[in-house]
Amino acid sequence: MTSLVPLIETYRGGTLECIHFGAVAVTDTQGRVVAHAGDAHWRSFTRSTLKALQALPFVEADGPKLFGFSRENIAMMCASHSGEPMHVAQVDAMLDKAGLTYKTLQCGCHMPYYVENGVGPAPATIDERHNNCSGKHAGFLAHCVQQGWPVGNYLAPGHPLQQAIRRNVARVVGLAAEDLKIGTDGCSAPNFAMPLAHLARGYARLASGVADGEFGDSFAQLADAMTAHPDLVSGTARADQAFMRAGRGDWVVKAGADGMQAFASRSRKQAFALKISDGNKIAVISATVAVLDQLGWLDARQREELRPWRSEAIANARGTQVGERKAAFKLVFD
Prior knowledge:
The chain is an alpha+beta fold. 39% of the residues lie in helices and 21% in strands.
């Protein structure tokens, strides 16, 4: 824990109540750390920030063109979506183009995020399509169909799909494949732990698009899809949607479970990876806005658009302000 620093503090009645520790790494496309808070090389699981990179083997093999995947479909492969009707419709379309049904998805079921967030009532039935990772899994399955690989065990770490993903991710973030520590994500897919600076490097490269000498065309397709359809990558009234809309095409953004956030600027060819150690969602978003502010990435309009996401005021059930939330760190510029 010595690698972590206080990122967000909360106060109640003027008294410090909670401290959310974490770390931030800001890098360029070469992996050079340009700023940090805490240990820029703290190793953590990437969770859903990995999705755009997990889609690389399919995109590199011209899978979207072969199956007629739209830009919306590509965005869904990168999504932690809310399970809204628009998301389910996209997953249905992707599976249909691959000649499959939702019964081949192995991501499991959960209550759609849009229900949990109070956006709308629960659907009459809930199935795998409502899982926030179903778009990623639909892309996995399409690639298996394309390559003639079995679909029954597509999540096994030894499956050719997962081996291809591991090789590509390692190349993108600048690590050997064996240095990617493997675990199982919430959707049952393999996931990798890596230093924050390497994840940030991967996102800086993703955001650089065609300028990348190795994956340029694929990165351009993925980044274009994400920035064009943040509603599909995220969902109604969610932070990643708000960030990418405020970025007006420049910001490629993806949250991950348990306190992960990846955030890249296409124009700057830089990115940061942020981790809150206790996984507090509000603290992650608040710290992300603070990083943007300290990096000088916000203009006046963006600062105002993102003001609600700072969550500076803490209110109770009656709407009375009972406390405040503050950024507790200063980036160190290297």
